[in-house]
Every structure is written in structure tokens, then in C-alpha cells.
Design a protein that fits this description.
The chain is an alpha+beta fold. The chain has one domain. It has two helices and two strands; from the N terminus they run αββα. The longest helix is centred in the C-terminal third of the chain and has 10 residues.
Amino acid sequence: MTTATLTSKGQITIPLPVRRKLGVDAGDRVEFIDLGGGQMGIMAATVEVSSLKGIVKKPKAAVSIAAMNRAIAKRGAGK
């Protein structure tokens, strides 16, 4: 397992083996993904957004505005 140390400014240096695996270099962007359970993932943000097409499937049925409003109200929007 590769580790890094957090500085007082909240910065880390991504270790070389991780940078190589991600295919990132100086100036490239990375994204941190919340995996839940206190775990985070890191991925290169160098992929074109068009490559993500098809990852999320279309819903089987359209959601009505009324159903959306009920879901928003249920989650306590506006508090």
C-alpha cells in the first residue's frame, strides 16, 4: 500500500507509483470520489466527458414533476 503525508496546508504529494497508474503528470487534475464508509477514491480527471456516455442507463419510466416535488419535500428542501 502506498501512503502520503498531509501538510499543514492540507496538501499531499501523490506518490509516483500512483501517478503512473493514474497516468497523470504535473498540471493534470484528479477527482476525489466518496466511496462511502469513510473511504475515498481518486481518479484522473483527464477523460473527455463524452466517454462517459452510456454509463447511466435511462430510467424505465419518466418521473413526473409532482413526484420530483414530493421527493424534494420528503428530503426537507428549503430548511
